[in-house]
Amino acid sequence: MIRETVIKVENLNLYYGKKQALNNISIEMYKHNVTAFIGPSGCGKSTFLRVLNRMNDLIDGVKVDGKVIIENNDIYSPDIDVVELRKKVGMIFQKSNPFPKSIYENVAYGPRIMGIKDKNKLDEIVESKLKQAAIWDEVKDDLQKSGLSLSGGQQQRLCIARTLATEPEVILMDEPASALDPISTAKIEELIHELKREYSIIIVTHNMQQAARVSDFTAFFYLGTLIEYDKTKKIFTNPTVKQTEDYVTGRFG
Amino acid sequence: MKRHFEEQLDRLRVKIIKMCSLVDEQLEVAIKALLENNQELAQTVIERDKQVDKYDLKIDKICQKLFALNQPVAADLRLIMSSLNINTNLERIGDLAVNLCENFLHIKEKPAFIDDTRIPEMILLSKDMVKKSFDAFINGDAKTAEDVIKSDDLLDNMNRENHAILIDIMKQSPDNIEHAVGLLVISRLLERAGDHATNIAEDVYFIYQASNIRHRYEKLIMGENGDTHDENSDVSEDTEE
What we know:
The complex is a heterodimer. Chain A is an alpha/beta fold.
C-alpha cells in the first residue's frame, strides 16, 4: 500500500531556554492515518505535538531548529502565515474549551472569520460539521443553547466540530479523552475512526490501550527522543527496541 | 518491587512447568508399563489423568483472568496466548499416555515382534521430543524448540514404516493380527505425541522469537527458499486484516 506523507519532520530540536526538550526528531506521518504519540510524562510528546502547528511560539524562550514540512512548505520558514497554518492543522485539547457562545456560533466562528457571511451556507456548514463530529442528533433541537451547557464529552465533540469547520488537513489531539468517562471516551475513539477517512489525525495519549485501539502508527518518545516509530500492531505485539517493550508492558523504570 | 501482574505471569509459568512435569511422568510411566508388561503401572497412569485435567482447567482460568484484567501486549501477550495452546497440547499428551495404557491393557502383553518394528526407536524419539519441548519452554530456549520441530518428520516416517512392517507381520499369521493392530495404534499414538511436542515447540518459538512458524516452518526456518524470514507472507497477512 502506498502511503502519502502529510507531515514530514527532519532533524527537529527544541529548546526551552538552555534546556533541550526534543532531540533531533525525524518522522513522517501519513495521510488518512491516525498516528499516536506515547511515552511517560515529560518525554516531549505534547511538546512535539505543539511543534506541528507552532503552538510553542506562544511560550517565551522556545527555540526550534530543523524542518517541519507540510504540503511542501517548511512551517518554520519566516514567510509562513501562522493563522493559515493553524487552520490547516487544527487542535483539540485535553480540556474541552468551547467559546462561551451558542453551539451554532462555536461552529460558525471559524467560517465567519474566513469570510463566509451567507446564512444558508453557514447553516449548512454547522449542520454538516456537527454531524461529522457525531453530536448533531444530541444538539440539533436547540443550536442556540450555550456550548458550555453541554456535558464534558459533548463539549469535546463540539470542539471537534469547531475544528472541522475550518477544513483542516490534520487534526492534532492532545489527550482528548483523558478527562472523559468511558462512554464519552468510546464515542471520541469511534469518531477518530470515522474522521480519519477525511483527515489525518495525530493524537497524544497517556492511555496505551487507547493508542492501540485508535491508531495506525505509534511513536514512542522518551526523554525528548523518538525511540521507536512503527505500525501500531508492531509496537504492541513485537516492538524492536527494548525500551519500547518495557514501556508498553508497564515495566518501565 | 514486582508488580502484581508479573507475579501472576510467574504463577502461570509455574503452573505450566508443574503440568509439564506431571505429563512427562505420565508418558514415561505409560511407556514403562508397556515395555515391562506391567498392568498395575498402566492403571496408575489412567487414574492420575484427573490431575492433568485439573491443571488444564486451572491454566485456562489463569489465562482468561490475565487477558480480561490486564490487556497484555508484546511479550506478555505472546506468553499468555501461547500458554493457552501449550496447555491444550499438554493435556492431549496426557490423554495419549492414557490411550497408550488402555491399548496395552487391551492387548494384555507386549508382543515379542515389537522389536521388529520401529516402535522402540519411536519411543526414544517421541519421549525426547516431548522432554525437549518442555525444556525449551522452561529455559526460554528457541534453539531447542527448533530441534524438536526438525525431529517431527523423522518420527512421521517411522510411523509410516511401521504400517508396512506390521501389515507384513499380520500376513504371516492371523494369530498376530490383534497384537499387530495394537502396535499400529501405539505407533500412531507415539507419532501424535511428537506432533503435540512440535506444537509446543512452535509456541515456545513464538514466545521468544515473536514469529509464528506454524504450518510454514520449512519455509521460514529451514530456508526452503534460502530465506530465514518470509517478508512477503507477513505483508499478505497485513493486507488481509
